[in-house]
Design goal:
elongated; binds adenosine-5-diphosphoribose; 257 residues; six-stranded parallel β-sheet
């Protein structure tokens, strides 16, 4: 890590479990415990496109599967990545998480690949807004859902990318650029089974030009297809909230010695 010229981190739901937010496919994951909810999630984007009013009414009628994200707090794993960025050893964090915890922890060069549950986005022009910029409850009681884009009047949805929804172009392009220029990737707390995100380490591996072979390190409680297919060089088994702070500590000690 110390010798890396351009290290990046890819993260998934596993980095937030120590903040009390369940992951999806781990032993007590949301989809593991509620396969029906996963099936419903696969239909969500089509439902939004066919009836955005009904989609919003459903969304506002019940709690989020991830719990109250406004109250959620980053954990030592998130803060360790911020420290690595402050030490200029980590150049970028690309996360699948929509919980906003990397931003709350203070990550600067951050790409929310699957968007953020705390933001909204226009389906037509892509304009993003903070959730608080719309009075969704008033729109609901006045029967004025869906919220409309202040720029183009297009339908506004939550910024979180649904299954089957294309990754917004700006996010996809930036992530590809980062994957193509990195020489080290720390992959933290993801089962690496959801595409196109899971392609990023393979893209970093494949490239012909630029720095020598990218070193790929997984930090995860379990092995993943990246481990099995030898896309990653190392798997450090354990909790990100314990291992990442230890990594920072070790680097700090080496630098001071
Ligand atoms: N530290 C390290 N690894 C952990 C921890 C932890 N504290 N907690 C859980 N894990 C591991 C799990 O064992 C699992 O391998 O993290 C992984 C989380 O994988 P998933 O639950 O599949 O989450 P993720 O890979 O982020 O899912 C990708 O799928 O459902 C969609 O859009 C959703 O962004 C999400 C995407």
């Amino acid at each position: 890590m110390i010798r890396a010229k351009y290290a990046i981190a890819l993260t998934g739901a596993g980095i937030s479990t120590e903040s009390g937010i369940p992951d999806f496919r781990g032993p007590s994951g949301i989809w593991t415990k509620n396969p029906q909810a996963e099936r419903r999630a696969y239909q969500s984007y089509e439902e939004l496109l066919s009836d955005p009013k009904k989609w919003w009414e459903q969304r506002l009628s019940g709690p989020s599967l991830l719990g109250d994200l406004e109250k959620a707090k980053p954990n030592a794993g998130h803060y360790a990545l911020v420290e690595l960025e402050t030490m200029e050893l980590l150049k970028c964090v690309i996360t699948q998480n929509v919980d906003g915890l990397h931003e709350k922890a203070g990550s600067v060069n951050l790409i929310e690949y699957h968007g953020s549950a705390l933001k909204l986005r226009c389906v037509d022009c892509g304009l993003r807004s903070k959730r608080g910029e719309f009075d969704l409850e008033r729109l609901r009681t006045e029967g004025a859902l869906p919220p409309r884009c202040p720029k183009c009047r297009g339908v506004v949805k939550t910024d979180g990318v649904s299954f089957g929804e294309p990754i917004p172009n700006d996010v996809a392009q930036r992530s590809l650029q980062e994957a193509r220029k990195c020489d080290l990737i720390l992959i933290c707390g993801t089962s690496a089974v959801v595409y196109p995100f899971a392609d990023l380490p393979r893209i970093a591996r494949q490239r012909k030009d630029g720095p020598p072979k990218t070193v790929i390190i997984e930090v995860n409680t379990d092995a993943t297809p990246l481990t099995e297919e030898k896309v990653s060089d190392y798997l450090v088994r354990g909790n990100t909230g314990e291992i990442l702070p230890r990594l920072v500590e070790t680097i700090r000690r080496i630098r001071e010695s």
